[in-house]
């Protein structure tokens, strides 16, 4: 059994999707970050970096419980645990990890900052909005150009697609028009139809 600690964020959603894709048994625990529940001592024992998502796998390596945080690490761990969505072929595997790192180092931080300055900043800062909007559009172009001749980010559907999808799914909040990125739009439509994706997104739908 896996205890899954999450909230309604893209990083939480990607782990929810992966858990659904993997078929592993899990129990969800909602950590309301709007109420700063991520700073509670019991959660800090699981993730001292006070962020969601996090998991506790009670049947971890060598049958010992494993606490794990950082969504990219969790995706890799779950893929290796189940043998799903991370190819054993060396070329495909490293390309999957490459695009996962692209999400972790670029998509997440840059679009996260854009969300902040568009919706949460105490005052509007035009420079910040322009800076992160331009960077968001650049990242969308990178993805769109890559998908021109590829159905997924790394040959087959993988943890790279799972990592990127929840962020692209919020394109309207980023004030990005997917019509400007037709290849990415077609990819988004394909991923959105997957049953595990629908279930994973629905997990926090009513929070």
UniProtKB/TrEMBL annotation:
Pfam families cross-referenced by the UniProt entry: GST_C, GST_N
Where's the GST N-terminal domain?
Answer: 1-86
Name the CDD domains for this protein. GST_C_YfcG_like (cd10291), GST_N_Ure2p_like (cd03048)
* Occurrences of domain GST C-terminal (ranges): 89-207
Annotated InterPro entries = Glutathione-S-Trfase_C-like, Glutathione-S-Trfase_C_sf, Glutathione_S-Trfase, Glutathione_S-Trfase_N, GST_C, Thioredoxin-like_sf
Q: Which family does it belong to?
A: Belongs to the GST superfamily.
Q: What is this protein called?
A: Disulfide-bond oxidoreductase YfcG
State the organism named in the record. Answer: Aquicella siphonis
